[in-house]
Design brief:
The complex is a heterodimer of chains A (112) and B (123). Chain A is mainly beta and 112 residues long. In chain A, 0% of the residues lie in helices and 48% in strands. In chain B, the strands form 2 sheets. In chain B, strands 2, 4, 5, 6, 9, 10 and 11 form a 7-stranded mixed β-sheet that branches. A 4-stranded antiparallel β-sheet of chain B has the order 1-3-8-7, with no helix packed on it. Chain B is globular. Classes of the chains: A mainly beta (112), B mainly beta (123).
């Protein structure tokens, strides 16, 4: 099983400031088709999760361009260039390269 | 508009069974894999399993904690996916979500999620 490790687990942020979340996998996530099978989700309070970034770096439809994903191999990063109040919630990375699909522990983002 | 609506959640005794439904609309259901996830109260997300579309054999995959107890199936004529939960344990208490990926050939990257249905296992 691929183990996903996120850091930090708690992230107080100031509106307008940047924020970054790290996700590390115990094995590389590169598929033979050239894509990294790593997605990012945000679960806002009281809501279902929503897809933010798919295949490592591709922004899902409707996601603002201040949110971006990057990385390779076993190290991936979600960045928010300027945090807004609507960004609060729990962020999860998930790998779907290998069954079982596995999540990171989640990073709780709160406004300071 | 794509919609996924879960139903069937309930309070059940340990050892009993329950069947959840995921009713889909707004897309050609038979072309898409459907996944199930769950979230225990105050905990993180856990993958339960998924069923491939008929084009990929309609086969299923499961997480270790539910394998052998849970079964995913689909009725493409009704646009419904099912999650049969058997031999329920207290640790199966969770909100269960069904999801649709953004690509017919890449089954992760879950772009659409239902609102979830709550299963509580308790005596």
């Amino acid at each position: 099983e691929i183990v996903m490790t996120q850091s930090p687990l708690s992230l107080p942020v100031t509106p307008g400031e940047p924020a970054s979340i790290s996700c590390r996998s115990s094995q590389g996530l590169l598929n033979t088709n050239g894509y990294y099978y790593l997605d990012w989700y945000l679960q806002k309070p009281g809501q279902s999760p929503q897809l933010l970034i798919y295949l490592g770096s591709h922004r899902a439809s409707g996601v603002p361009d201040r949110i971006s994903g990057s990385g390779s191999g076993t190290d991936f990063t979600l960045k928010i260039s300027r945090v807004e109040a609507e960004d609060v919630g729990i962020y999860y990375c998930m790998q779907t390269l290998q069954i079982p699909w596995t999540f990171g522990q989640g990073t709780k983002v709160e406004i300071k | 508009e794509v919609q996924l609506v879960e139903s069937g959640g309930d309070l059940v005794n340990p050892g009993r069974s329950l069947r959840l439904s995921c009713t889909a609309s707004g897309f050609t259901f038979g072309d898409w894999a459907i996944s199930w996830f769950r979230q225990a109260p105050g905990k993180g997300l856990e993958w339960v399993g998924f069923v491939r579309s008929r084009a990929y054999g309609g086969t299923t995959e499961y997480g270790a904690s539910v394998k052998g107890r849970f079964t995913i199936s689909r009725d493409d004529s009704k646009s419904i996916a099912y999650l049969q939960l058997n031999s329920l344990k207290a640790e199966d208490t969770a909100i269960y979500y069904c999801c649709k990926p953004r690509d017919t050939a890449i089954w992760g990257s879950l772009h659409h999620w239902g609102q979830g249905t709550l299963v509580t296992v308790s005596s």
